[in-house]
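Continuing the batch. This is chain 6 of the set; chains 1 through 5 are on the previous pages. Same settings as before, nothing changed between runs. Recording input and output for traceability.
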Amino acid sequence: MSNQTPLPNEQDQPASSQPPIPPSTDQDWRDMRRSAHEARWAERQAWHEQRRAWRRSTGTAWIGGVVLILLGVVFLLQNFGGIRFDNWWALFILLPAVGSFATAWNIYRRTGQWNRPARGALIGGFVLLLITATFLFNLNWGLVFPVLLIVLGVALLLNSMLPN
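Output for chain 6:
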């Protein structure tokens, strides 16, 4: 028997205690950068696929189509002289309104009932719709604002009294 102690095997030591071995050639450096780039690329692709799957599962992809169709119809009517909108920019307030309606619908679809979050999103959508109509049709804010306050108060009162 010999008195020599065996040298530690690379597999016996934890990976964190070994310093990384630097690449020795330019090709090794390129390979290392390429593999890091491919890893980041694969991670980004996985994130994008997860995001696409989430969008498909929530069913909100139709919102953009509805908004574009509404804008197109409004501009077409304006060009034919059917309706004159001086405040056409107010149509952009419809974006969060449609988003609010979609959120209410998705909550209802997921839970099967019009619970407090679904009703809250629905109320928000109607308030934004009223504000948009006020700007588009040049309604009198002196009349619309008190109506808006009454509608909001009644909606909040009903929402708090109804079961969750």
